[in-house]
Amino acid sequence: MGSLFGEKARLKREAVSSTSVDRESQQTLLRIRSFYLLAGLAGGMFNPYMSTMLVHGGLGSTQVGLLMSIGTFISILIQPFWGLVVDRFQQMRLVLMLSVAVPALLSVFYQSPYFIVLTIIYTISMVFTATQAPMADSYALVAAQKANTTYGAIRFLGSLGTAAGSYLGGLYVSRIDISLIWIPFLVFNLLAAVLTLTLPSRSDESRVLQQSLSTGIRSLLGNRLFLCFLGGCLLVNQTLTAFNSYFVLSFEEAGGTLELAGVGLFIASAANIPAMLLAARVIARYGHERMLLIAAFAYILRWGIQYLFPVPWVMIAVQLLHGLSFGFFYISAVEYVSRIASRHMQATAQSIFNMVFVGLAGIAGNLLNGYLLEAGGAAAMNLSCIISAVLGAVLLGYVASRSRDREQTPVIG
């Protein structure tokens, strides 16, 4: 009889513990989704209009490309330092908070007319911003696993925020002043920074961030298939700077207005939402590698249409392909990296991917597309994007043809 009561008590304790864990997981899920939403609002209102703001302030598009490339290059060099901070001191939450708080506070200085000042401000901002995606994604991947949901179901809040922010940004710059677009960026980022304080201080950081970035890079360089994957990502995603950094400028060149540009940005970000929500189901059917290839072809179609029909209404309508191109590509790539990396190398592998997908691709894209836009107009930029996306699709096709079933043994770590 005593053993029966003891067993009942044990089961009750386990049930209470399970309920507590489930409640904590749901709270963390809500908070990381809210973080994505606020960060999306901040970036959606500011990032697409930053190049236009700087050009209106007196810089040329080549100078803007150089400024952005310098900042992105320095941020890549500094990433191992952030890996050391997180690995050694387990300060994932602090790093995530700084990734939004520092750029927010520095945005005040974008009113400066001096190229050197703007370069320094952007570089410092990028040093901190570069850590946002891998840190937030690491939180999201762990939260998704604990709450029995998908990464896309969490990440889509970022696209929702970006969509709303892009549209509101268009209204803001057309009715107030583009030089003051940093104000909503400051507000939403500071709210996101405050929200990070409510995240768990140790959301499995010790599980997902245990090996150094240098160890991960050495493992990576020994895997030819993963290098081809990164090469494909680099070639495809560098074309995205033609949208992220230069869409508003090229849209104005085609005769569009700033307010209509906001509509185009809204459509692009809104198209990401169903892509994020449906990604898990589509990937389960076709696999990560095939989805990456399909998304790469969507990029080719996207740039091809804008090259052939450079008119405002077509440039707006074609943004419906943003979800099929960027949305499916990004989700597939992040989950592909998560699948092939060993358990203790998850965040390091995501950091390496982010360095290429955002860092190197951002440098190449901002320099090349900024120069082409100024030297040959939007037509030259779009043609270059078509060629780059085709080359990227070739590499991703090789990855898809060589990959085994989706349950393959991890290849990193």
Automatic annotation (TrEMBL):
Membrane-spanning parts: 35-59, 65-85, 92-110, 116-142, 154-173, 179-199, 220-240, 260-279, 291-308, 314-331, 352-373, 379-400
Topology of this chain in the membrane: Multi-pass membrane protein
Name by which UniProt lists this protein: PPP family 3-phenylpropionic acid transporter
UniProt keyword annotations, A-Z: Cell inner membrane, Cell membrane, Membrane, Transmembrane, Transmembrane helix, Transport
Classification via InterPro entries: MFS_assoc_dom (IPR024989), MFS_dom (IPR020846), MFS_trans_sf (IPR036259)
Major location category of this protein: membrane
Gene3D superfamilies recorded: MFS general substrate transporter like domains
Alphabetical list of SUPFAM superfamilies matching this protein: MFS general substrate transporter
Domain Major facilitator superfamily (MFS) profile: start-end pairs: 217-413
